[in-house]
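Lecture 7 notes: from sequence to structure.

We start with a single chain of 454 residues. Read the sequence below before looking at the structure.
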Amino acid sequence: RRTTTTTTDDDDDDHSARTAGRYWTVGLHPRTNPRTMLLLRGSLSKHSKTVASRVSKRGQPCRTLATSDEPLVKTALNTLHKQLGGDMVPFAGYELPVLYKGDNGGVMKEHLWCRADGKCSLFDVSHMGQLKWHGKDRATFLEKIVVGDIGGLKDGAGCLSLVTNASGGIIDDTVITNAGDYVYMVVNGATKFGDMKHFQEQLDQFDGDVTMEYLEDSMQLLAIQGPGAAAAVSKLLPDAFDLERMAFMTGTNTTLDGIDGCRITRCGYTGEDGFEIAMPAENAESIAAKLLEDETVNPTGLGARDSLRLEAGLCLYGHDLNETINPVEATLAWTMGGPKGRRRTEGGFLGVEHILKPDGKLQKVAKKRVGIMGMKAPAREGAEIYDVTGETKIGVVTSGTFSPCLKRPIAMGYVDTGLSKAGTEISIKVRGKMQNAAVTKMPFVESRYYRVPE
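Now the structure, written as C-alpha cells:
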C-alpha cells in the first residue's frame, strides 16, 4: 500500500525515513561512468585496524582486519555476481557489483525495475556489519550509545536509530531489532569497524551485563526491494509464515528454502516494500540463486541503490551525515521519539546536551537538511547553495543525481535554517554557473512502505 509521511510543526522533522532501514552506498549519476565515480568517491571507510570479533565490557581477544592496502574481501556471492555480469568495484573494503551488464542491467534500468509494479531487485549487502547484543543490561547499554527507545521495543520490533558522539554528532545510523533473547543490530559497512571500536570504548566504561558479538562474514546479508518483493520472498519461507501480517520494521528468525539459522527483517533503503534476509555464508549463493529463478527478481548493484535512496529522501552516511552533524540538523530528531517520549524527556545518550534542552525540546540549529529541485543540470556533492539573489552563500549540496523516475535533477543538502522551508527559492552554483532552484519536501518519489491491512 502507498503511504505518505508528514512533518510536524513541533519538530520540523523530515519523516521520510521514519521506518526505513538503509544500505549506504556512494553517490552515482545514472548517466555517468559508474566505475569512475565509485573509484573516486568510494573510499568512505573509517576502518580501525583491529576490532573484537566477540567483545564484552571486560575485553575479548581482538583480530586483525583488512585495511585499505590489503586484498578486498569477497562476499559469498562473488562468483555469482561475475556470472551474472556484475561490474565489480571496491567498496568499504569489499568487492561488490556497481551494476550488471545485460538486457536488464545498467543503473537506469536496474533503478526503474525496482520501482515497477510486480517486480523487485536483489542486492548483496553482505558488507554491512551484523551484531548481536547479549546480557540482561543490553538495552540499558544501547540507550547510552544510540538515541532510540531500545528498551521499549516489543519482541520482533525494530527501529532506525543514530549512534552519537559526545558532541551530539552522528557516528553512524543503524537498524536495531529486539530479537527476544538478544538485540540484533545492523550498521554500515564503511563504518562498522570504527563503530565497534567506539562501542568497545563505551563498554569499558559500563558497569553491567552486556556482550557484543560481531558476526563477521559468517552471516551474509541480502536485500530484496520493490513491489514484488513479498511475493518473491514468500516462495522461500515456510508455509505457515504469515508475511501479510509482518509489519514494516519487524524481524524474526526463520528458515529460508528449508535452511536453518536465517533471519528476515521487513525494511529497506529504496522507499519500496522490501526485506533484509540474513543467512549462513555457505548457503547464501543457493538462496540468491533460488530468488533469481523468479523472473520478477533482477540483480541490482550499488549504483541504482544510490539513486533509489536519494529519490526516497534517505541519507548516505559520510555524505549527508557525519560526526559534525547532529540529529536536529539532519531532520532526524524523530528517531528520538515525540516531544513527550521517554528518550526526549530522560535523555541519557552521548551528546544529548547538544541535541536537546533540559525540558526535552530540540536545541536550535543554524542549518537543516533539505531536498532541492528545479535546477536544469544535476548539482553534485559540494556544489554551493546561495540565496535567490545569488550573492549570499547559505549551504552546500551533499548528494545529487538525475532522477530516473522524475526525469529531472534532484539533490539533498544543508541550508541556513531560516531558508529551509519548502518552496523557498534558492540558487545553486553548478560548474561555475548559477542555476535557479527551490527547497522541496522529501521524499522526491512517493514511498510505498508496507502497512499491515486493517
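The two ends are 12 Å apart (CA to CA). Keep this in mind for problem set 3.
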